[in-house]
Amino acid sequence: MRRIAVAVAAIVSLSGNFSHTAPARQEAGRQDGGVRMIAIEGEGAKYWTRWRGPSGQGLASTGDYPDTWSGTTNVAWKTPLPGQGNSSPIIWADRIFLTTAYEGGRRLAVLAFQRSTGARLWESFAPAGRTDSWVNNKNGHASGTPATDGRRVYAYFGSRGLMAFDLDGKLVWHRDLGPMDVYHGPAGSPLLYKDRLVLYQDQGRDSFVAAFDTQTGRPLWRTARDANVGWGSPIAIHVADHDEIIVSGQRMVQAYDPETGRELWRCGGNLWEVIPTPVVGYGMVFCSSGRAGPTLAIRPGGKGDITRTNLAWSSPRGSPFVPSPILYGDALYMVNDMSSIVTALEAMTGRVLWQGRLGAARSEGFSASPVAVDDKIFFTNDDGETFVLRAGSKFEMLHVNRIGESTLASPALVDGRWYIRTNRTLFAIGR
């Protein structure tokens, strides 16, 4: 595999005070204004049960996580993966779940592994049906990350539908959502919210956001959308006295009532293509879009078009195309995957704190979303190189970990171990 030299030059921070807060203070600070991401609570909070983990923002609890590894160093176990897929692993107790595809998407499956040993426990296939006709190589037929509530595992496979399996791999229910007309193929992950699953699919026609009962798959509501392209995942936030489902999509960000699907507000400013999942803090929702396009900081709440009243700030360029941003301490960190440039913005104002290069400049070289733990930010590129940065007021590259295999999926972190899916292997990294 091609080795990428790490450039150490960076655009150093602008003047002004910047301080990194410990995770506990950070989470408290993020709830300013009565706005917060709805995190997983109870038993599930100990694991990594959904896309971007229990926080919904790529944040792991402070713990004894190694920050150096390779394909052989700090590897607790590794196991070969069948099929092809880019979905991220999720975890409940001693089980790891992920999705995979065979025969160009004609066969789709959910896999379960034992977390302690890596042994494969079961593989269960989606019901036979349609196959999405054409998908991008960086997408594939198994890109949506599943979710679990400890009773069932929920997976979305585009034209093959939405489905639930029990923890032993038995199909509990299957909901056919009709054919999908999405160039590059579907890629969004379902969101668990209370007793329902929420997902949206923007496509050539019949775009929608919808909610389904987790126990039966019964549709609870479905709201038509105007957008015709998009590959993102929804989030759930709490705003003062109510909850909102946020969809960052084509040209705009919209909020929906999770009980009825009614649109609450919309804010313009996104570009045409949207993949990153929003993050939340300091009374705002941060949404990135486009190929190095803008990042919007929106104060949620209100009614109708809130673009003129609730858009706190917007960065002109430099945002990620595929990876999501990450909010840690006082800063919003993101990698422009069209040029391999990482940027730290002051979350409250959008002011650029610093920039730096992550390896050689490369177009569309990052797919995995970053994670943060123990005052460090981890960015992984498609070659399986993880750039470890110290969170703070200046660009500080600590080191680069090379796992030696292509890596497009985002990692899961539980109990001091990393669980990393590459193009052919599931790794457990830990002491």
Summarize the structure.
It is built from 2 helices and 35 strands. The protein has 431 residues and is mostly beta strands. A hairpin with a 4-residue loop joins strand 26 and strand 27.
CATH architecture of the domain at 1-27 and 325-408: Beta Barrel
Number of strands: 35
Radius of gyration, taken over Cα atoms and rounded to an integer in Å: 20 Å
CATH topology of the domain at 1-27 and 325-408: Thrombin, subunit H
Count of helix runs: 2
Basic shape: globular
Main pleated-sheet profile:
6 strands, mixed
Spatial order of strands in the largest sheet = 2-16-17-18-19-23
| CATH class group of the domain at 1-27 and 325-408 | Mainly Beta
Strand content: 35-45%
The first-to-last residue Cα distance is 26 Å
**Average predicted confidence as pLDDT:** 90
Proportion of residues in helical segments: under 10%
Structural class: mainly beta
Uncertain stretches: 1-31
Description of the molecule:
The chain has 431 residues and is mostly beta strands. The chain has a domain at 1-27 and 325-408: Thrombin, subunit H. 3% of the residues lie in helices and 39% in strands. Strand 20 (279-281) and strand 21 (284-288) form a beta hairpin. Mean pLDDT is 90; it is low at 1-31.
